[in-house]
Amino acid sequence: MSTEPEPISPEARRALEQDLAELRAERAKVAATLRDVDSAGDRADQADELQRATDVARLDDRIKALDLRLRQAAVAGPPPTDVVGVGSTVTVRFDDESTETVQIGEVAEELDRTLVTADSPLGHALLGHHPGDTVGYETPEGHATATVVAIAAG
């Protein structure tokens, strides 16, 4: 993938915003349990406090990453509709003549059967292609091809 800001679909934006809200709520909950470092306590209390501080730092890192991704997506604008890119919704026809509409994303969501990550074999093969283009990619069963039928923004 390029180093340029990549667009995301409206659905992906909503999912990231929801994740961000949940992370901020979790961070606030964990941070509220932190005590003053000078408070008395045994080693178990100190270890517990250290673990909570580590959890807050981990949450802060994830919050920063999601904030950055959302800002980058705003700069990138909407997903393209003339060429397959991250955030595109693509209808593809496979070798067996079946068609499927998939969304090209960055991170696979559990139970989201329509999302294809940009670094997966099919997602990577589709990037940069136009309707009518046929792409080849590797599957566990061997080489396969798919034809880009249509592209939508999301």
From TrEMBL:
Residues 7-75 form the Transcription elongation factor GreA/GreB N-terminal domain. It comes from the Bacteria. InterPro entries: GreA/GreB_C_sf, Tscrpt_elong_fac_GreA/B_C, Tscrpt_elong_fac_GreA/B_fam, Tscrpt_elong_fac_GreA/B_N, Tscrpt_elong_fac_GreA/B_N_sf. Residues 80-152 form the Transcription elongation factor GreA/GreB C-terminal domain. One of its GO terms (molecular function) is RNA polymerase binding. GO terms for biological process: DNA-templated transcription elongation; regulation of DNA-templated transcription elongation. Keywords: Elongation factor, Protein biosynthesis, Transcription, Transcription regulation. Pfam families: GreA_GreB, GreA_GreB_N. This is GreA/GreB family elongation factor. It comes from Streptacidiphilus fuscans.
